[in-house]
Write a structure and sequence with these properties.
With 140 residues, the chain is an alpha+beta fold. The protein is 47% helix and 17% strand. A hairpin with a 5-residue loop joins strand 2 and strand 3. One FE2/S2 (inorganic) cluster binds next to loops. Scaffold protein for the de novo synthesis of iron-sulfur (Fe-S) clusters within mitochondria, which is required for maturation of both mitochondrial and cytoplasmic [2Fe-2S] and [4Fe-4S] proteins.
Length: 140
């Protein structure tokens, strides 16, 4: 992969040793799933979070079908979001991810995918919890 030489060491590190690859059971009540695609290149990223009763992320994993920058971006955010509150992680900007990985401008959409995936995963768990709350409310 000679082209990897032009990537920053953080990209190569996360590309070669990605953290937290995997899947959680999508239907589980404590799991939020964010599945997003980049229209520019067709790459797809799935980011999942496990969220406790207080809204803190206890675990996170990803599966990304995409370029090295997208894989590195997903790997980085799974590390960043663990232990943090869901209201907090939706503030993570793709520019922070891009800066950490020193992504060139043509690769900014790869880090954008990771920002979108976090937001989608949080939205998913919030909707699940609202539904559950509504269901228990109507039963009471
Ligand atoms: Fe460089 Fe695929 S073209 S990693
Ligand atoms: Fe599309 Fe990286 S080239 S996500």
């Amino acid at each position: 992969l000679p082209c990897l030489r032009s990537y920053h060491k953080n990209v190569v590190d996360h590309y070669e040793n990605p953290r937290n690859i995997g899947s959680f059971e999508r239907a589980d009540n404590d799991v939020g799933t964010g599945l997003v695609g980049a229209p520019a290149c067709g790459d797809v990223m799935k980011l999942q979070i496990k969220v406790d009763e207080n809204g803190y992320i206890t675990d996170s994993c990803f599966k990304t079908f995409g370029c090295g920058s997208a894989i590195a971006s997903s790997s980085v955010v799974t590390e960043w979001i663990k232990g943090r509150a869901i209201e907090d992680v939706v503030k993570i900007k793709n520019s922070e991810i891009a800066k950490h990985l020193s992504l060139p401008p043509v690769k900014l959409h790869c880090s954008m995918l990771a920002e979108d995936a976090i937001k989608a995963a949080v939205k998913d768990i919030q909707e699940k919890r609202e539904k559950a709350a509504a269901a228990s409310g109507s039963a009471a």
